[in-house]
Design goal:
The protein is α+β, with helices and mostly antiparallel strands and 261 residues long. The chain has three helices and 15 strands. It has one domain: Sandwich (Jelly Rolls). The strands form two sheets. Strands 1, 3, 4, 6, 11, 12, 13 and 15 form an eight-stranded antiparallel beta sheet that branches. A seven-stranded antiparallel beta sheet has the order 2-5-14-7-8-9-10, with no helix packed on it. It is globular. It starts with a helix and ends in a 6-residue tail after the last helix.
């Protein structure tokens, strides 16, 4: 019969091992996301301003560092730190049907799972002026934009179809703490926003069957170089699928320890 003291000690060692490996386990969970188009943990950094924030998905969709945002870490969590003035990360769209043009009708995704999901972990030094988190929005019109995740007094997510904007508002935000914020678009069904483990949904007016394939670049921390985030971003991802509540909330539980949440 096993010695109960040894069994307990082994459990403690296993738990300590799991905690020690948690950053690697978190990265692995993000790489398992269905329809993963890009994943920027903000840990791997090139010495070049162009393609400085590295994409872990394997697609080589690295981001340009505009105006020299700094990279660092908070405990076990890597991040990029924006000054709220003119710093942001970006990558050009590349033309119609290109890497960031996720419209919700991608036939290579199972029909019931088509859509778009994007988000990450965010820390706000200021929530004024609705700072942009993930943007494929040209800052001009809905008709020339695709999707937008943004902050402010609340977390918000919007998709654009034709000349119309379809938005959803989530939980309140404040400064000085990390938040897990994720937006999801399910064609013709809903748009949803998750803040930590709380989800809000909206389908009024009715969610469109597809969203615009626009020429706007993808930006982290700004829209068209404005509405700049004053704060930090970490573990940012983009998926060409509508991830389930289970997957999105599992990511929160698996990664929250890195951010002290």
């Amino acid at each position: 019969m096993p010695d109960p003291v040894q069994v307990l000690a082994e459990r403690v060692r296993n738990q300590e091992t799991m905690e020690a490996l948690s950053p690697e386990l978190v990265i692995a969970q993000y790489l398992l996301l269905p329809g993963l188009r890009a994943f920027w943990p903000m840990s791997s950094v090139s010495w070049l301003g162009v393609d400085q924030a590295r994409d872990f998905s394997g697609g080589g969709l690295h981001l340009t560092n505009n105006n020299s945002a700094d990279f660092g870490y908070d405990g076990l969590a890597p991040y990029v730190d924006f000054d709220g003035v003119n710093q942001y990360l970006s990558r050009a769209d590349g033309g119609a049907g290109n890497w960031a043009d996720i419209v919700g009708t991608e036939t290579y995704i199972v029909a019931a799972q088509r859509g778009l999901t994007t988000g990450g972990w965010w820390y706000f030094d200021s929530v004024a002026a609705t700072p942009r988190l993930v943007s494929k929005n040209d800052g001009i019109a809905a008709a020339t934009s695709s999707y937008l995740l943004y902050g402010g007094g609340t977390a918000n997510f919007a998709v654009y179809s034709g000349a119309n904007t379809y938005a959803v508002t989530g939980s309140a935000l404040t400064t000085g703490t990390w938040y897990y914020i994720v937006g999801r678009y399910v064609p013709s069904i809903e748009r949803a926003i998750f803040v930590n483990n709380v989800v809000a949904t909206n389908n009024a007016p009715a969610t469109p069957a597809n969203i615009n394939d626009s020429a706007a670049p993808v930006e982290i921390g700004a829209t068209a170089g404005t509405r700049n985030l004053s704060g930090k971003a970490s573990l940012v991802f983009l998926c060409a699928a509508a991830l389930s509540d289970e997957i999105i909330l599992a990511l929160f539980q698996q990664s929250r320890g890195l951010f002290g949440v």
